[in-house]
Queue: 2 jobs
Job 1
Amino acid sequence: MAKKTLDQLAMNGKRVLMRVDFNVPLRESLDVADDRRIRMALPTIQCARNAGAKVILMSHLGRPKGKRDPNLSLKPAALRLGELLETDIRTAPDCTGKDVEKLVGAMAEGDVLVLENLRFHAGEEANDAKFAKALAALADLYVNDAFGTAHRKHASTYGVPALMPKGTKAIGFLIQKELEFLGEALEKPERPFVAVLGGVKVSDKIGVIENLLGKVDRLLIGGAMAYVFMVARGQGVGNSKVEREVEKKGKKKDMIAVAKALLEKIEAADAEVVFPEDHLVAREPAADAETDIQGPEIEDGWMGLDIGPETVEIYREKLADAKTVVWNGPMGVFEIGPFADGTRAICNALAQVDEVGTAIVGGGDTAAAVDKFGLAEQMTHISTGGGASLEFLEGKPFETIEIIDDA
Ligand code: AMP
């Protein structure tokens, strides 16, 4: 069911409490090092202002773990927002309490007030009822536009909208766009539909692989993740990075056993799953290290650091006729020059897909790689949430979005 969007709310003269993602990197001097997240939130903020709303913005920044930390104040983000909007922005000393209520009471239509870091309160991540009630009391309407935290049931993402009446809750343009692209890819993709998964942590992507196996035509696996499957098959991986075990909530999980079980599912699936044929290896992950091409196995004393040239060719071919691609996780240690080729090749292939179809990039490291190669403009959609986009691809419903009014 489509969700109510910002432009479907009657905002004139109303206090609109908006969850944004201003979790921006700060310099040591405490100014904003990268304002991309703030710039991306501008259309939603401007739409509300133009409609005559009193816009109250709330966000988290970093991990202050429920304590005030002056180094993690949202003031620098508010300052940057003011520069971008070319207007004076008020900042609140906290996110709830008498002083904040007074500031909200003094707002005029079109004004913007930025509340202080939500995570200065332990109640935010704990979805504490009292904290959520105090936040909800500040507003008439609620808008969520922070996809990066949409997979977390926190006070600002779940507790607050749970308290607000029907007819007052909408998603902003950023979340709308995420649902459109990620949702469409999963539900009615133009085919061939190809997924590319890489990175180190198989543990993050088990659910994604399982869900995508039933949806994609092809699944290409790269990065250090591929080595876990190699170990599960009894192939040599030398000194490569392998996520052999993870600990979640105090419980240890054997990832090799998980990979073995996944290989059985892969065997039974209709989707074609492709693993690297060769690897770019070195003795250490260093820019000046001696490199070699090995495959399908990796010799003792060597580490796999990127997919090899033959694999690059195969993956290029498997992407050539794709109409929908979802990509999460680099093919190698793209941060270090000699090991970036595999990831760059996938990036270039997606840029071509964008011309005839839909090329979707998961957030986090994958988005950073696309930026590094200067190809961000050539992607159809780059998700604003790393962890959130992965959970979405697992096919898990987001309760924070379900609680928003239907359109
Ligand atoms: P993830 O968070 O699981 O998506 O992993 C992203 C990281 O995987 C990046 O920082 C890459 O440097 C790293 N990575 C990808 N391939 C390899 C590899 N073959 N060996 C070590 N690290 C890798």
Job 2
Amino acid sequence: MCGIIGYTGSRKAKKILLDGLASLEYRGYDSAGIALCDADGALRTIKCGGRVSELASKANAIDFDANRGIGHTRWATHGGPTEANAHPHASKRCVIVHNGIIDNCLELRDELSAQGYTFVSDTDTEAAAHLIDREYAALGDPAKALYSAARYLCGSYAIAVIFPERSGEIWAIRRDNPLIAATSADGAFLASDIPALLAHTRMIYRPKENEVICITEAGITKHNTDGTVEAIVPEETELGVTAADKDGYDHFMLKEIHEQPDAIRRAASHRINSDMLPDFSTDGISEEFWHSFDSISIIACGSATHAGLVGRYVIEKLAGVPVTVNTASEYRYDPPAILGKTLALAISQSGETADTLAGLRLAKSQGHPTAAIINAVGSAIAREADCVIYTGAGPEIAVATTKGYATQVAVLCMMGIKLGVARGTLAADEAARLCRSLSRDIPAYVSEIIGRRDEIRKLAVAVKDADDLYFIGRGPDCPAATECSLKLKEISYVHSEAYAAGELKHGTLSLVEEGTPVVALANDSRYFDKMAGNIREVRARGGYVTLICTDDFPHPTEYGDSIFVLPKTEPLFSPLVSVAACQILSYEIALLRGCDVDHPRNLAKSVTVE
Ligand code: F6R
């Protein structure tokens, strides 16, 4: 949510800022703006209550550019998505952009108004701008002003500030919100994430929480509370330039679906040793860790919760370790009662999700050991968990997660195998078979599914006009169905729900009438008879069944109005294959309905507010 970009150096800033904002669009936003400031302190702010393309037209029509500037994409929280509320927001001696939420903004607005500051927007950010201005006026030093302002700010923030009178400098501070700094031969940058900068540089620095930094053409400096200043040497990111572009695909989502087989393979094989057994030593996790808890409490949001549901299934089946899966927004206020020593396991692609972070902090404060499964390296949740397992999916730009989810599932499956071996519930040869299946067969099957896009498009055509669509499954297909359903509704706007197939007749079956589409997942032969019965119940009421089943499902043509046959997989890992098929199904339905696949309405990629 929201994106920050900043540049200072020998080049003109306007184009760099506008291109940077375009590459941050995926994070979700509804208004945008830039501020340009030249060496003499002349400042020009350009904003619009719409897309970055509109901002670019407006900015390019103005004959002003400078070598220093900050830009922002805003996702409205305090006040509507209007031009007046768009960032940057200026005070007397500074102009700022801000991601996050200032919880005490009403008190600050009252206090600052009483001190003579005038507000021209409804935002919390403007209060932060005036606060920083007040502290700067009193202390005469940007670092002192930012540290002092931070003491008054409650909430979360990443803030970039230009003090026009301080030539060439851009200052920044963050708390619970992402912000990176970077250097290149011709200047320095700030951004909310790395892909926004890959066209310019791969030399990245991640400021710590509440650390004040300053970027100039010469590089990055860190300003400590005791007044000392340190020059920062950024590190080279592993990400290549194509990590941030569509690489010939029509959409980022399609590109990321295609990246799944490799991503799953990497996530699994990175944790398999030469004996084909699970090994998390490269994650820095000791053998003792696997014996150090009685149960696991997963804390996550959205698709990460759905990955957690698959993880629960696999871990409980292979290792007998009890797992609860908790929606982070609930857990953070009402954590469940627990028995024994519980590992709090946060799962997050972005590593920034506010509720998941808060849940992790709560678990920590209650004395639980913590771990996190994260994609974004160095993100807030990764920094705060006692140990981190990186999924290594690479940048995920489409709002709807695909490879992010798949790699979370792959890591959880590896954890299940590892726990099974460590706790003696899984024999070594069976563990090796499962490792082989996850690292070799599953990626190959997902590749095969992706190659059958034309077949899946036909399934999509048959249901594209539906108002409602239900996914049903049993066993491993049950958690898989939850993710399939979310994928469909978020990108195609078709209302959808997922049910344990046996649950349908306890209420929802009343919604099934002539033509109601139901997607039935059947990948585990233990449940084929039961699934056949549930499908019959649907068809008896006129429901239209899309059957997605493995090739050993008996007489599929008697059950499915349309059928998509999957290769026979290890059932525990089958969600990786069936969800891939449903990701493509959702993608095709969204295309047929003319939806903006990569940027679904109302949604943001990184949900950094509550
Ligand atoms: C759905 C989706 C979201 C995220 C959720 C958590 O496609 O992407 O449901 O899974 O917002 O995000 P992370 O994993 O970044 O914490």
